[in-house]
Amino acid sequence: MQLNQIELTNYRNYNQLTLNFSPKLNVFVGDNAQGKTNLLESIYVLSLTKSHRSNHEKELIQWDKDFARIEGQISKKNGDIDLTMIVSNKGKKTKVNGLEQTKLSQYIGYLNVILFAPEDLSLVKGSPQYRRKFLDMEIGQINSQYLHHLSNYQTVLKQRNQYLKKTAFNKSYDSLYLDVLNEQLAQEGSFVLFSRLYFIKLLEKWANSIHENISYGKEELRVSYKSTLELSAEQTREELYHLLMEELKKTEERDLTQLTTNVGPHRDDLVFMVNGQNVQTYGSQGQQRTTALSVKLAEIELINEEIGEYPILLLDDVLSELDDERQVQLMEFIDNKLQTFLTTTSVTHLNDKLKIKPEIFYVTNGEVERTSEDVDG
């Protein structure tokens, strides 16, 4: 899988821009606030219809314009595909080969990307909410139904929590109505849980292998799913449904008292163990960063295993956050394996770390100049 061309219109600080890319390594070079991260972000938005930097989509549109458009031409093993993502005051619109997609879940998955940014080093030591978002975005790329069921789950969860709060004013509640909400929540939640357990099983396999190589065989990485339920990887979706129904009923009294839903995938988390020790709590900063790097690289192999081709890798100024040894390990992993886009303020520090001759794009105040040259030239 590769992105051959991207065209931006009214996007951030780009009025109109068309770029063609190398199938291997593309480097965006420039000082801060010049627009290099905007280019990387546009590829991410083209893939997943949302930014990794902002929850406010209107920020993608130039301040004096009504819309922003990203168009990309990608090549996959089954042929070329044209993707279009439009953001306006009316919302988002997506097209595949010129045909508008009625649901975002139908669009996501055509272009698979893995983003590694400085904030992703917080995957290990950050909040459970951050790790749940990580799960949702990555599973959504390889399972077209996941985001649909997750959206339904979140809708029912909101309805249930609103009803729980309503009972505090009414001083009574309709147990039959709550049973209906429980049933709907368990139906959608069981799909979310089943998909997450399957994903984590694959993720741990790849992450442990990569982590072992990075640590020169000294460390073993285990990734597990921490749930409000008693789960096992062997459970079927039907078993998960009955388990969630049972727990929702069991905690109903507590939910009515606390006016919130206490069990379900919206409360779950990931746990990373290195040599049997919780790296989130007890690991050194070096171990935490190695774990985050291992997990990100594992995603690449996992997606290749699931869809039969490698995703595109986006590295947003992440090399500056890694020591020399981990930089070398990262670049060696990438070597000729997948198309990569990298942002940096200087190419000089890449010397001796790259085996691939990159395409270099110099970015200055929204203007881009492309050149093919050695990184020390």
TrEMBL record:
In alphabetical order, the GO MF annotations are: ATP binding; single-stranded DNA binding
Q: Is the Cytoplasm keyword given for this protein?
A: yes
The alphabetized UniProt keywords are: ATP-binding, Cytoplasm, DNA damage, DNA repair, DNA replication, DNA-binding, Nucleotide-binding, SOS response
Predominantly, its location class is: cytoplasm
- Tell me where in or outside the cell this protein is found: Cytoplasm
Superkingdom assignment: Bacteria
Query: Where is the RecF/RecN/SMC N-terminal domain positioned along the sequence?
Result: 3-351
Stored InterPro entries: DNA-binding_RecF, DNA-binding_RecF_CS, P-loop_NTPase, RecF/RecN/SMC_N, RecF_2
Q: What is this protein called?
A: DNA replication and repair protein RecF
Organism, scientific name: Vagococcus bubulae
- Gene name per UniProt: recF
